[in-house]
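Researcher: We're teaching a course module on how sequence relates to structure. For the next exercise, students receive a sequence and then see the predicted structure as C-alpha cells, so they can try to spot secondary structure elements on their own. Here is the exercise chain.
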Amino acid sequence: METLIPVEMIERKIYLIRGHKVMLSADLAELYGVAPKVLIQAVKRNIERFPADFMFQLSNQEFVNLKSQIVTSSWGGIRRANPYAFTEQGIAMLSSVLKSERAVQVNIAIMRAFVKLREMIASHKDLAKRLDDLEKKYDSQFKIVFDAIRQLMTPPEPKKRKIGFEVRESRARYGASGRKRPR
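Model: And here is the predicted structure for the students to work with:
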C-alpha cells in the first residue's frame, strides 16, 4: 500500500512540549486537509473525548518559544488563539472525530511515525546500556574507544543559519573614479 504522507515529514512535526511528544493543531489540520478552524470545531463538539492528557492549548510563552525554535513559521498572519497540542492518544482520538478516509489514512501514518520514534529511543537506550556494561567489563585501556563511541552517539547541536545575505565586493568603489580632479 502506498503511504499518503512520508513518515519523515510527520517526524519533523512532532515536538516535545511539557514533557510530551505532541503535534500541533495547525500541522494536523494541514495533514488532514482541513482548515485549522474546522479541526478545532470538531474537537470542541466532542470535547469529552479529549481530556488534558490527550490535548492542551499552548500558553503564550510556549507559543513564543516554539516559534523562535522553528524560525520560519508556517503560521503566518495574526492569530487569535494559540494552537492546541495533541498527544499520541489525542491524535488517535481525532480519527473518530474527523470521519473521512483521508483522516483514517493520515492517522495510520502518524501512529507509524510515533512507533518509529519510540523504537529509535528504545534502541538508543539499549545501545547506551550495552556500552555501559562493556565499559565495566573491560579496563581503562578501552576508555578512549568508549568515549569516542559516546561522542558519536551524541546528536550534534543544530547549526544556526545566518539570516539575510552578504555582499562580497573586492573593494568599495564610492566617490573617486580613479582620475584626478582639476585644481
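Model: If you want an answer key for the exercise: The chain has two domains: 7-119, 120-153. The CA atoms of residues 3 and 109 lie 7 Å apart.
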